[in-house]
Structures are given as C-alpha cells and as structure tokens.
Amino acid sequence: MLVAILTYVVPLDQVDAHRAAHIDWLKDCYTQGVMLASGRKTPPDGGVLLMRGERSRLEALLAADPFAIHGVATYALHEFAPTMTAEGLESLAG
User: Fold this and answer.
1) How far apart are CA 19 and CA 77, in angstroms?
2) 1, 35, 5, 18: which is closest to 72 by C-alpha?
3) Spatial contact of 91 and 47, defined as CB atoms under 8 Å apart
4) Shortest CA distance to 60 belongs to which of 41, 39, 40, 34?
C-alpha cells in the first residue's frame, strides 16, 4: 500500500487550472482498482492519495497525474503494509 502526500508548489489558482484533468486521472485510477481513497488536505495546500499495487506501477501512475506533468505539486511517497484495520476494511490488510 502506498500513501502519496501531495504538496502544492504553486498558487491554488494555478493548481485549479489542472484540477479537472487531475480528477479524470483519479477516476481512471479508481477504475483500475489502484486508488482506494483521495482528497484535499485541510488547509487546502495539497492532497492525500491511498493506493494499492506494485510500487513501480504506482510511481508510473503518479508521474502521469496532470498535477505532476504540469509541476504544480510534489509527492512524498510512504509505503506501508496494514496489519490491522477497522471493521469493513479487512481487504486492506496484507
């Protein structure tokens, strides 16, 4: 499992110019089954993505994110193996 923490590196209006394409990219990742959750940080200075799959594949997908392509966000990647989960989320445990 991979947690990607996005940090915007340009003003929010420049990020927003690419948001529709980013949302389309997110929807594609959900369709592929690799995206588990996504959302904006509070305050809105970036976002968080929870993904599953082989790290090299996820890194390639992140590189194809319009936010990455247009250089409006940086990504900190944190890989972890869940061993305990809340009821209903058992499928996340390795």
Assistant:
1) 21
2) 18
3) no
4) 34
Nearest by Cα to 47 from 64, 31, 62, 69: 62
Q: Is the pTM of this model over 0.90?
A: yes
- Tell me: the pLDDT tens digits for 20-75? 999 999 999 999 999 999 999 999 999 999 999 999 999 999 999 999 999 999 99
What is the three-class DSSP state of 47? strand
- Kindly provide the residue ranges of all beta strands, DSSP E only, lying in the chain, ordered along the sequence: 2-8, 35-40, 46-51, 73-79
Task: Fold for 2-82, please state it.
Answer: Alpha-Beta Plaits (3.30.70)
43/21 Cα distance (integer angstroms): 22
What ranges do the domains of the chain cover? 2-82
Q: For residues 41 and 13, give the distance between their C-alpha atoms in angstroms, rounded to a whole number.
A: 16
